[in-house]
């Protein structure tokens, strides 16, 4: 049967939430804990908000949340199923919310790593700095480049998983590939379903950043790093729990970042002629 290219879970956000459930709302709770721990104000921008689950949690915690994503389908789902935040379409590598001033920018589940090039990462950090009040926080959670690039190529044997939702079973085979020259973790995932729908092939990639490399980019853009550690976090083993103290190492497969914008004028990282 002929398939198509696309992203099954982005095209159908309800499947995303079924495939990646978060009944304990660990991601949102971890982000709220970081905001409280470092004294953030109430205005939060959630970038790469996806289905809106984490943004809605922060809203219920008393934050004034604007949530942004590039996927119009995800945003439509979020407005219906996770109301409360203001939802807007935006590209992480360059966005502008006008005169809005946020106390914190939150970027979870490796969303930051969709900035594949240095130019895109510069655009992301420039936009964050413009959106934040002086002293505002950047809170991010992502895959760790040091972990993946410091190891052998992932197994060529596909990993297989399945889940059932509304009576239909969805099966996926996934292959990861390290593109070391581009510092990208590339993923090819093929989906089939037992309801007769055509198979779907997904192709995606994440930029892999070393901790010191990330510190360098943040410093160039006027951020002071307050925390950069591998765990505990919402996707670590063991997972984060209330009262957990941030670690001091950065050796695991996840990286957690808290940085504060400085009070100096915005740094121009682009060389002018």
Which helices and strands occur, and which strands form pairs?
Blueprint: E1 4-5, H1 8-11, H2 13-19, H3 26-37, E2 43-47, H4 53-60, E3 64-69, H5 72-81, E4 86-89, E5 102-107, H6 118-131, E6 132-143, H7 145-149, E7 159-165, E8 168-179, E9 184-193, E10 200-207, H8 211-220, E11 223-229, E12 254-261
Parallel strand pairs: 1-10, 2-3, 2-5, 3-4, 5-6
Antiparallel strand pairs: 6-12, 7-8, 8-9, 9-10, 11-12
Helix pairs in contact: 3-4
Protein name: SAM-dependent methyltransferase
Keywords: Methyltransferase, Transferase
InterPro entries: Methyltransf_25, SAM-dependent_MTases_sf
User: Mean pLDDT across all residues, rounded?
Assistant: 93
Q: In angstroms, what separates the terminal alpha carbons?
A: 55 Å
Beta-strand content bin: 25-35%
CATH superfamily of the largest domain: Vaccinia Virus protein VP39
Q: Which value, in Å, is the CA radius of gyration?
A: 19 Å
Instruction: Tell me the domain tally.
Output: 2
CATH fold-level name of the largest domain: Rossmann fold
**Could you say which overall geometry the principal axes of the C-alpha atoms support?**
globular
Number of helices: 8
Query: Could you state the oligomeric state of the chains shown?
Result: single chain
DSSP strand tally: 12
**Broad CATH class of the largest domain:** Alpha Beta
CATH architecture title of the largest domain = 3-Layer(aba) Sandwich
Protein structure class: alpha/beta
- Please bin the fraction of helical residues: 25-40%
* SSE succession: EHHHEHEHEEHEHEEEEHEE
Unreliable stretches covering 5 or more consecutive residues: 265-273
Protein name: SAM-dependent methyltransferase
Keywords: Methyltransferase, Transferase
GO molecular function, one term: methyltransferase activity
Pfam family, one: Methyltransf_25
